[in-house]
Amino acid sequence: MREDPLFEIRDLTKKYAVREGGILSSLFSDQKYLRAVDQVSFDIHQGDIVGLAGQSGCGKSTLGELLVGLVEPSSGTIRYKGRDLSEFDKEEMKEFRRDIQIIFQDPYESLNPRYTVGQTVTEPLKIHNIGSPEEREARIVRALEDSGLTPPENYIPKLPSELSGGERQRVSIARALVLDPSFLVADEPVSMLDVSVSTGILNQFKKLKDRKDLTLLYISHDLATIRYITDETIIMYLGDIVEMGNTGQIIDYPAHPYTEQLLSAVPNPDPDEQRLGTDIDSSISNTVDIPSGCRFRDNCKYAKEKCKQEPDMESINSVQEAACFYPVSSSKSEVENV
């Protein structure tokens, strides 16, 4: 039996007011909201790498920002190590922020161009008042080594302009690792990098998990990298979770039609097994005017009358859940050795 989750997310919602038209329109019409994250519930266990996938605008990045405390939820609860974040006092929240770190997508925007690598990686230690100068230096060296920048002394004096895109992203990783976090959110960390550089960074994440028991939420629209790096996968559509469970099971036997469509767009190197993806109509894929019932039904080729009702998340097997009345792989067995 597994230990208690590191994170317990229940009915988590984040919505933003949308202003339409002029002042008179806003006075005499009902306020509309963009539901970036809409009543999602899931757990994350210590030491797992969890993938979070879905098309652009589905709420992936907002969910990651909610977990690290960059934005406040509109409703719902986030429990960390058994405690509700809303109950944390100032000192407890500071400790939480030290324990939880995020790596952003764009290494060209997330680094201060005037800071050397050493200054960038030192900054979190200064903010949290950690260590003597000697202890900070040792932490910086270790973080650079852990992120794959070796030898560290060659990188410490360099500015971002002197680094490649892959090296910049590794500096971002080192900046997050220098605080020895328990949990790391990686938001599309390799989407701007070429394949060879991306593979090196993904392998570095896997090494960190094995060596440090690091827990990672890996956000991506790329299901190929999700499969390569993650243990569990969460699929989001229009702000909600439509499928989650063991990564191998979901990739090999997708239960939700949306997951099936996402997978149909993944290139297959075997010319005899090429799959033609089905486009998802973006005009009906927005989080302001979410349809009643199953939110995917207007894009779903399997939709029936019952889909006008809202499906609950239900178990497909012991390692996979989906919110669908007619799961496409309900008759498929679980993958071996999950």
Automatic annotation (TrEMBL):
InterPro entries: AAA+_ATPase, ABC_transp_ATP-bind, ABC_transporter-like_ATP-bd, ABC_transporter-like_CS, Oligopep_ABC_C, P-loop_NTPase
ATP-binding listed as a keyword: yes
Record-level GO BP terms: transmembrane transport
Domain ABC transporter: 18-263
Stored Pfam families: ABC_tran, oligo_HPY
Coiled-coil ranges per UniProt: none
Chain ranges passing through the membrane: none
SMART domains for the chain: AAA
Keywords: ATP-binding, Nucleotide-binding, Transport
Molecular functions (GO terms): ATP binding
Name of protein: Oligopeptide/dipeptide ABC transporter ATP-binding protein
Species annotation: Halorubrum trueperi
